[in-house]
Design goal:
single chain, about 325 residues, alpha/beta, 4-stranded mixed sheet, about 20% strand
């Protein structure tokens, strides 16, 4: 297929680009490089532009005869979304609607959307099934859910086939060490722990140690970034007119903050400096996917099923590239 990947120079998007190209697809990356990295994708496949630049978006769709879009371009910091909701609604919602309208103009009807478990808010039960009520508790989750609603309406009115993939905590790096995770600021736990071990930050702050969990720290479901890319490709290949896929992507296994720290120490053979702090507002005690439906619908099975194997790929990247793509 001829595929446009928006936000394709970012963390998850770049791993998708790598996989899609390896599988023989004609892939084009559309990224403004505000958060993405030029070095993360092939230079001859990169279109440096913003989704607000509608003429350039139209040109990309027509010139490369795009047949399908995988949409990763979004801001994703929960705390920032609370402080700057306008930024999130403009980029995550308005720019996505710009993209969808451009696709409608050019007859592109296959769309895979990078959604999030944040649309569930604080779940009533864990593991979280796709039938759980979607009640976001922050602007980030609200913008993602608004796009899900828009996609359902577009599918009904215009015959689109789409997938809204609600994934949990993306983690890890390409096993060959070519690409990996590089955010500024970094907000994901595994790279934060590895950076502390490398001496690139003074400590790992544990936000809350009194949750109703076995060790008192939050529990999350970590899914390897390559497994996410594989699921996006399988979803894309499954889409037909009117197809609506709303699926969780996770492993179905949760790990606590302390377990992540312990695993990173075991993988690296080094201790991580740790500081305990208060809970962060809005952090649920546990977020774990009920992952069976996604695996059944897509014929997808994660390759990285345990935390250690995920951390090993992350360590392979971070120890070779302690400054990320600046190295």
């Amino acid at each position: 297929m001829r595929i446009l990947i928006t936000g394709g120079a970012g963390y998850i998007g770049s791993h998708a680009v790598k996989l899609f190209l390896a599988r023989g697809h004609d892939v084009w990356v559309y990224d403004n490089l505000g958060l993405g990295h030029r070095a993360a994708v092939p230079a001859d496949r990169l279109i440096v532009a913003d989704l607000a630049e509608l003429p350039r978006l139209d040109h990309a769709l027509v010139t490369h005869r795009i047949e399908a879009v995988v949409h990763y371009a979004a801001f994703s910091l929960v705390g920032e979304s609370v402080k700057q909701p306008a930024k999130y609604y403009q980029n995550n919602l308005v720019n996505t609607l710009n993209l969808m309208d451009a696709l409608r103009r050019h007859g592109v009807k296959r769309f895979v959307f990078s959604s999030t478990c944040a649309t569930y808010g604080v779940p009533e039960k864990v593991p979280i099934t796709e039938d759980e009520k979607q009640r976001p508790i922050n602007p980030y989750g609200n913008t993602k859910l608004a796009v899900e609603h828009a996609l359902a309406d577009y599918a009904a009115a215009y015959g689109w086939g789409y997938a809204a993939l609600r994934y949990f905590n993306a983690a890890g790096a390409a096993p060959d060490g070519q690409i990996g995770e590089d955010h500024d600021p970094e907000s994901h736990l595994i790279p934060i722990v590895l950076q502390a071990i490398l001496g690139l930050r003074p400590e790992v702050e544990v936000f809350g140690s009194d949750y109703p969990t076995p060790d008192g720290t939050c529990i999350r479901d970590y899914i390897h970034v390559d497994d996410l890319a594989e699921a996006h490709l399988l979803a894309l290949e499954k889409l037909g007119p009117g197809t609506q896929l709303k699926l969780n992507l996770g492993t179905g296994r949760g790990y606590s903050v302390r377990e992540v720290i312990d695993t990173a120490e075991a993988v690296t053979g080094k201790l991580a400096p740790v500081k305990e702090g208060p809970r962060r507002p809005g952090d649920p005690p546990g977020l774990v996917a009920a992952a069976e439906k996604g695996q059944q619908e897509l014929g997808w099975k994660p390759r990285f099923t345990d935390l250690r194997s995920i951390v090993e790929t992350a360590w392979n990247w971070h120890r070779r590239h302690p400054k990320g793509y600046d190295d």
